[in-house]
Amino acid sequence: MTTTQVRIGLVFVVSDEDDVDGMQDAGVALVRAYHYVCHEVDSQSAFEAVIAMFSQVAPGGRLSVGDVVKVVEKRFPYVEVSSILGADSSYDATRKEGRGYYQQTGVGPLPVVMYNGIPFQREQLDPDELETVTMHRILETTSFFQRAVYLGELATDHDVVDFIMNQPNVVPRINPRVLATSRTYLDLSDTNNFFVDDYARFVTLDSQERSTAVANSMNYMTKKDDGYVRPVTFWVVGDFDLPSGRQLLYDAIRHMKTSNNVRLGLINNPSAVAPAPERSRVARAVWAAMQTQTANNAKNFITKMAKEETARALDAGADMQSFAVGGMDVALFRSAYDGPKLDFLLSHAVYCRDVLKLRRGQRAVISNGRVIGPLGEEEVFNQDDFLLLESIILKTSGEPIKSKVLQFGIEEDRASDLVMKVDALLSAQPKGEARVEYGFAEDRFSAVKIRPREGQVYFDVVAVVDPVTRDAQKVAPLLLVLKQLVNINLRVFMNCQSKLSDLPLKSFYRYVLEPEVAFQADGSAAPGPLAKFLDMPQTPLFTLNLNTPESWMVESVRTRYDLDNIYLEEVDSVVAAQYELEHLLLEGHCFDVTTGQPPRGLQFTLGTAADPVIVDTIVMANLGYFQLKANPGAWTLKLRKGRSDDIYKIYSHDGTDSPADSDDIIVVLNSFKTRVIKVKVQKKADKMNEELLSDGTQENDSGFWESLTRGFTGGVKTEEPKQEKDDVINIFSVASGHLYERFLRIMMLSVLKNTNTPVKFWFLKNFLSPAFKESIPHMAVEYGFQYELVQYKWPRWLHQQREKQRIIWGYKILFLDVLFPLAVDKFLFVDADQIVRADLKELRDLDLEGAPYGYTPFCESRREMEGYRFWKSGYWASHLAGRKYHISALYVVDLKKFRKIAAGDRLRGQYQGLSQDPNSLSNLDQDLPNNMIHQVPIKSLPQEWLWCETWCDDASKKKAKTIDLCNNPRTKEPKLNAAVRIVAEWADYDQEVKRLLTRVQERRDPDPADPHHSGSGATDLHHHLHQDSLSLKQHWLRTRVTPMFSSRVPV
Prior knowledge:
There is one protein chain. By secondary structure, the chain is α/β, with parallel strands linked by helices. About 35% of the residues lie in helices and about 15% in strands. It has a seven-stranded mixed β-sheet with strand order 26-25-24-27-30-29-31. A six-stranded mixed β-sheet has the order 3-8-7-5-6-4, with helices on both faces. β5 (about 230-240), α11 (about 245-255) and β6 (about 260-270) form a beta-alpha-beta unit. The radius of gyration is 38 Å and the shape is elongated. It starts with about 25 loop residues before the first helix and ends with a strand.
């Protein structure tokens, strides 16, 4: 709101009684206090006073007079409160007008929020939605005003409010009944010659035939008797011998007299069980006039009949003939009025009861076959509502249908009937997407055409694509499958860009979609859908990626090859990979009902009745987002035991499979589609001042994180006594591809060789190969460390990265606050291609001086690289303002501080804004924290903690505590060559790891306790070692330009 001019107005709808005492009525007290503060100070102070009054109300409570009095007494201690709020208050000027405005506008049940006169829907008033909806409206309005200014419709000397009020969609009253999306229509499609004046025949008809009989019998009033085809037909239903029925009729007539598009018919719904002449005087008079008089005379007479003074005069004994208007044929009217036959009343009563489903005397309005009602006894439906109803019909259906009917050249009354019936018929049909027919001047040379099978009905399908886009890659296989399923005449137009500076497509793509279930020769089901890539070029280095639905977590479970480095020239046969759908994602958003803000650090658990805690998660401050891994079945969502459960309770939930007020949240995953829920929580009454992320937070380290360890460490953790968390070095690292997994093992070994402190490694499971996941339990046993494999799906609302390397960079920085349990206070990130020469306990214990994380600055001692130091000029030099630019290969994070200052949420917010520009965040994992250095401070670590030959001179190497094999943009030396040359101990570590993997290979007996053991995993280890070598040959190409081919593999 800081850059948008917003005005907020309040309309108080309170008691409008004359002598009401504000010391007894809280609503009246609020209004009088507001006006008093406006008078004494200003409207801004009055608005703040109202907020202060409501802030004293307990959640779920109601405003009291005492709440108002407290605020007034505090702000104006020397004023007698009763003189402001009491019955004789002089600050009561607009109290009645507020209720009058509310009734006149017809906006529906309170509370109501209107934006530029447009009411919000009820569900949009939820605190979780209101801010988002308002921002969307502001964005829409901005573009609307920009267009108006551009076209000269709005200028600086114009009043914006007048401009808005002069728009064609502005009406004086908004009736929710009229605007409702759920609508009921009469079936007027029958054709018969029945009428309502034959009651004996009418009662034998079905509903459809009765509606037609009523239409056949209807006589109409119009503004002019001019033979004009009218696209809007109103039927007013009511007991016209009652004041409520007469008022509805009178308002309809008033509107009809203002519009020549409308014709008005009447249906009587008598409140009496058996209509008698003395109780149906007005109804009979109206019917007689419609049957016997000219349209204009009938209209004038019926207008008289609808007035209350006429009804009072008739009740007093006045003769009906005394109300005749000039030009009436009184004798003819009298004979019809005094006639004994009441068939029309009986037929109308049966029609209202059986077809319109109205009780006796209830009112309704029928517009072109749409039934609006029953109207409540006190419900207002006035002239402005008829105007709104007419406007909707004209803009949506009336005028288009009328234009078609006029082409038939039929008589005007029949034409108006036809418009009414066609509108009712078409409007009652389910709404679909509008069909648009495009004509193409020529397709001889500009389209690819696949003809349909001869002699059969076919669908005409036209696709317009830019052939060198990802969308074209997706559309092509869909069209081919569609061709197999149905008979189509297919034309594909190539909508190419005229100029390209670069080839936009750098990937091969297959969409795995089969037209039918496949079977083998023996009748059994085929193994599964496949993505095949044939005739691929041999020289590029490929990476295999999957493009899956948002809620799927898929992993590779069997392959002999490094899927990050596929070099087909050195592959003997085919590269095959098998993937499995491991989990379905349950996503949600959580908010505190008291503050309206997400409860940062709140934890949820997901489980079953037998095992209540299977997985857990932490709520982000960004949109209150959380995600949980699950599988098909019924799950129970709960607050995690500990501080989450101690401080908060679940208030309500939406999108679940249990009642909104149920304490147990049941969620059933019964499809492969995305499932998103909303949860509202509230602090317990005695915990209102406590915070989840306060200092000294202790959380029992159990649940999901412990179950992960049980799943992936082969029982190592459960066999050892649990270490105090301050006694463990937590190290996080990310690797993808066999080469980097080889580096990762060596990094782990170098860490373990240089410390006596227990070490726990945290690996991002998303990108690990099956071979690495098979080997890590054996390393854990051999070297006595703990480890956990963690997963997190990139949230759908956060800007997606496409290149795998950039996705990995994102995981290094964007989700640190939610990847780890609250029990982890501090961790170190160490790049996979790093060698550690010192005890990392020293770095873990380093004082970060209040910063949430510490990074090592880039070295500046190697002078020949001066031209490559991009941070010393341009944007970075200006932005850093003398600060260092830090490298992301090694950093330490104080998670308690990181979460306390919402660093993760700030980083994600900044990323969301900058990542839309492809030229921003070229080195995402280090550009982002350096860009945020003013908002999220960085502690600069001593230079010796990271030595890199590219940037650091040789003299400083002897002090290096870690050595990073960062790329050299000048020499482009392959990493394996650099590792052997730069780090003396690297080859020994490499050989030690190889000997371990060879022993595992020879034993061919992985730890049976590991639930992820796969029969082929151990046999792949030897091939894994060979693959590391061939991955190296094109590694520089991979880091610069990565051609990818992707497959979408459903279960």
